Amino acid sequence: MGLRCLLVDDSAGFLDAARAFLEQEGLTVVGVASTGEAALRRAIELRPDVTLVDIDLCGDSGCELARRLADEAGGAAGCLILISAHAEAEFTDLIQASPVAGFLPKTALSADAILALMGGSSGGGPAGSISPRER
């Protein structure tokens, strides 16, 4: 597949598990970050194809971070996708207002789901749909 991915989450356990799972599915996890500042640095440095951002980063807004990545890192962050352990319905308005390709629940995270969201995205553009099932 060759897709290069940056994972942004404040849970070390999730980062380890997601990295192992996504790499098993053929993605290359080029880096991880647990804060917004680290995510910005890593996106600019690594230029991933896709950046997965947790909506709730230790109390900080993943939606705001996605906006910062789009504004400050430009295309360097690649396609932006929000992820969360929380239900999508809790964040629908925030997701739609953010510069992301969509949202994935952490339980549905997979290479296929990421690719489905990227299918209609030019990477970091306005959200077209908020979940793969709606494509």
Distance, first to last CA: 21 Å
Total strand segments: 7
- CATH fold title: Rossmann fold
* Largest sheet properties: 5 strands, parallel
Mean pLDDT: 84
What can you tell me about this protein's structure?
The chain is of the alpha/beta class and 135 residues long. It has one domain (4-129): Rossmann fold (3-Layer(aba) Sandwich), CATH 3.40.50.2300. It contains 5 helices and 7 strands, in the order βαβαβββαβαβα. The chain has helices at 12-24, 36-46, 62-72, 92-97, 111-118; strands at residues 4-8, 28-33, 50-54, 56-57, 60-61, 79-84, 102-105. The protein has a 5-stranded parallel beta sheet, sandwiched between helices. Strands 4-5 form a two-stranded antiparallel ribbon. β4 and β5 (60-61) form a beta hairpin. α2 runs parallel beside α3. The two termini are 21 Å apart.
Map the helices and strands.
Elements: E1 4-8, H1 12-24, E2 28-33, H2 36-46, E3 50-54, E4 56-57, E5 60-61, H3 62-72, E6 79-84, H4 92-97, E7 102-105, H5 111-118
Parallel strand pairs: 1-2, 1-3, 3-6, 6-7
Antiparallel strand pairs: 4-5
Quick overview:
The protein is α/β, with parallel strands linked by helices. 36% of the residues lie in helices and 22% in strands. The protein has helices at residues 12-24, 36-46, 62-72, 92-97, 111-118; strands spanning 4-8, 28-33, 50-54, 56-57, 60-61, 79-84, 102-105.
